[in-house]
Amino acid sequence: MEEVQQQPIGSAGQDGETEIISGGSSVTHGEPPQNDGILEYFYRNTLYLGQDAEEEIVTEGSSFVHGGPAQDDNGPPKVDTKVEVIQEKVTKQVIKEGHGEKPSKYSTCFLHYKAWTERTQHKFEDTWQELQLTEVVLGKEKKQMTGLAIGLYTMKAGERALLHVGWELGYGEEGSFSFPNVPPKADIIYEVELVGFDETKEGKARGDMTVEERISAADRRRMDGNNLFKEDKLEEAMQQYEMAIAYMGDDFMFQLFGKYQDMALAVKNPCHLNLAACLIKLKRYEEAIAQCSIILAEDQNNVKALFRRGKARSELGQTDAAREDFMKARKLAPEDKAISKELRVLAEHDKIVYQKQKELYKGLFGPRPEPKKPKTITSWFIVVWQWLISLFTSLFRRERIKSE
């Protein structure tokens, strides 16, 4: 059993070494063993709820998510890979290869996707913007997602693909005039990423699970993500964290209070923080900021979220915003050396920028001219006096020469 230690938030070194540490408040009542999981720990320690049970990966590196957001919004991406005919009305082109097994009937798939009408290239749906995974239970999908589901059967976890779906397996002859707005007989293009899937008996979806089942499933994903992170498999770790978060969407969290809310947050918040840690290591700083901001929207005094958002902002050159995060984090954790170190780095950066600007302006405008001293009355008097002395001296010499 691995010992869980209480350490400062920036305890991991620049070499990318990671540790599992306690999120810890000022008073701890015992940490959950890594192999047991949050749910079992809460059942044994119902009096001690909250962040004391948080188990989280902390990393300090260079500086929704899996694979990054899909490509730009100028229409479907251009893909030159081989076209695979899955079914008469469904074709697929792989954008990024996945790994592992493929889902089967009743698998609960977690995915991100964008959807366009093929003829007009009008984008009518984009789950990446919502920062929340979509759930599809194969064999129980909505009628308009039949073509998408057929494509999912052929995909592996982590795979991203472009699907072309005929209107017969999409929104049909009538289309949809509500949300999303799809015209009649519209063929559809999907850019879809299968983040992962769960094999569940008879396709038990999240909505059919009890609170305990959902938190337990999320916690298993979180622990799997931590193990993958230790192996430096960051992409796969992020898949697990995303799927854990998917079990605890907003609709679910709004229904919780008291003990169950604390249990859910003890799993959900570390997943957001660990996603941010992965994204910083991968230099995907904007996405890391988004993950930290999700936590700070609910808990504005979360030191780790402030620290990691500050780190990401600093790497993007957003020094004022980064300093604001670090200063607030230092007020909450004044003894933390990692925060002080980042503030010193920002101060040194400011000095370098100032010197560069100083040299730049000096080169543009040249050396500053010395001001001329104005002539005063005293200086004019001295000049006249010297002239008179010179004149009398000259006359005296002339008379002396004549006398001789």
Automatic annotation (TrEMBL):
Residues 1-35 are annotated as: Disordered. Keywords: Isomerase, Membrane, Repeat, Rotamase, TPR repeat, Transmembrane, Transmembrane helix. The keyword Membrane applies. It catalyses: [protein]-peptidylproline (omega=180) = [protein]-peptidylproline (omega=0). It comes from the Eukaryota. Its EC number is 5.2.1.8. InterPro entries: AIP/AIPL1/TTC9, PPIase_dom_sf, PPIase_FKBP_dom, TPR-like_helical_dom_sf, TPR_rpt. SMART domains: TPR. TPR repeats lie at residues 303-336. One of its GO terms (molecular function) is peptidyl-prolyl cis-trans isomerase activity. The chain crosses the membrane at residues 377-396. Residues 106-198 form the PPIase FKBP-type domain. This is peptidylprolyl isomerase.
